[in-house]
Design goal:
This protein has 446 residues and is an all-alpha fold. It contains 20 helices and no strands. The chain has a single domain, classed as MFS general substrate transporter like domains (Growth Hormone, Chain: A, Up-down Bundle). Helix 18 packs antiparallel against helix 19. The longest helix has 33 residues. It is globular. It starts with 12 loop residues before the first helix and ends in a 40-residue tail after the last helix.
Amino acid sequence: MKGIARPSLWRHRDFVKIWSAATVSVIGSQVTIIALPFIALTMLGASVFQVSLLAAVEMLPFLLFTLPAGAWLDRIRRRPVLIAADLGRGLVLLSIPVAYVAGALTLGQLYVVAFITGTLTAFFDIADQSYLPAILDRDDIVDGNAHLQISYSIAQIGGPTLGGNLIAMVAAPFAIAVDALSFFVSGGFISAIRRREEAPKRRLDESGRPASMRSEIAEGLRYVLGNRYLRPIAACTATSNLFAAALFGVFPVLIWQELMLPPAFYGTVVGLASIGFLAGAALSNRLPHTIGIGRTIVVSAAFGAPSFLLLTLTPADLDIAAVTLFVGWFVVGMSQVIYNVAQISLRQAITPPEMQSRMNATMRFIVWGTIPIGSVLGGAMATLMPVRVALVLAAIASFSSVVPVLASPLRALRDIPAEGPSTEDGSQTASLYASRRAVTGTIGTY
């Protein structure tokens, strides 16, 4: 009810545990984001295409496994999956420093590690977004997403700086051990959650038999693609991710090989610029109230491409590079947080509990499934033409991502709908929203 102050989420013990787990693991992951391509380029002699392929392999599981994972996760409790995925990622990443010490580290191992961690991340991410409705009330959705974006902001500020300086001080494979440890800590926080999750009821088909996984996957696809709000969000994010992957799959080659920027310098500048994430988190709870949830999605989506283009123009001169990187990453961070909080909150609020995992899985399949394609595309472009030219072309192409939301009903959407989302013909899908009062918030990214 409007006008009544809700208790602070910082007093919500289970939410604080989720927030702590996210903060620790994301900080560790920022170290690996810098260290893994650095190892491939400088220690294992990888080519431009091989570096872009490393990014593609990590995201490939989102094309292969997200749809069946969503149907499966709608049938089971999600907390054990979260814990197992965290522990599994930690163990797999530890294989890199172990192999380095043994003198057996190869590019092939990096691909295997990237694929396994990507697979576990796919299951974790869908389970995470679908599990949290058991933690937060519906009215806390936007606030909860904003709080979690603060954790990502802290990670974006501290992670690159930590990663760059760790690589400067110790061998890059040892820096990845920090990420492995972060997953163990994250799993510990999640295992400490005491609120019991109800076991999902098995869905039945029209004949009264348990619904097949194939039919449940198809229902999730129809739900997202047939919704006038979810469809343009999926198209916008998928297009942005496609060209961002083409750009950032090759970007390390520009930074480490062509410009030869020092790791500590790059990590520090990117870390400082990541205060943009904090700025975005601060604005993400205000903009929807000021200009509306739909316009917030449209406006924040429009800022991504210009910041990508600026980053591709980074020069070798350290002073100018510092300014270019700082401004580019600041705008990327700010717009990304605002966009994520707005569109994720809308997705979560209009989706019923029994559809949460399949909605999240379908969205992940669409919006993250373009990432491995983009990474391969970027590598191919950078192989056929100068790296800088390939990056600029990818940045220019990313301007098209705002078109789906700009041309959609989101422009006129002021508030999150109180009822279920309209289908294409404007009618209400009553059967899916019978338990509307039970809908609660979940969190995630992209």
